[in-house]
Amino acid sequence: MFQRGETRRWRVTRDFEWEAGRKGSGDWVLIPEGYEFESSVPAAFHWFLSPDDPRFLLAAMVHDFMLESGLYGRPQAAAEWYDGARAADAPAWKAKLAYIAVAAWAVLKPGAT
Predict the structure, then answer these.
(1) pTM here?
(2) What are phi and psi of 13, to 5 degrees?
(3) For residues 1 and 63, what is the distance between their CA atoms, to the nearest angstrom?
(4) Strands 2-4 and 36-37
(5) Among 24, 40, 37, which Cα is nearest to 64's?
(6) What is the pLDDT of residue 85?
(7) What strands lie across the sheet with 36-37, from one edge to the other?
(8) How far apart are CA 45 and CA 19, in angstroms?
């Protein structure tokens, strides 16, 4: 589903539908084939979470698309990051700690992506 991107680190290899919010919300987001995104992790934390860990790529894709589409704000995108990590079977404890960092970044740097 992911391969190295041309202009950014990762690219989606097929259209992907994501249901935002709770299951059954009906709030579907279509992430188109070819969409490129980052899986950004500060270098000091690569020992904890690799930006290339496939269990977190879904989370990064959903998060970046939600922000860049302009349809969702940073708090919602951060929550969807966590849901994406769990949907890809990332360990709950690791996903929760990383989510806290993503959410904190959203508060500390509201203009950042």
Answers:
(1) 0.87
(2) -95, -5
(3) 16
(4) unpaired
(5) 37
(6) 94
(7) 2-4, 10-12, 36-37
(8) 29
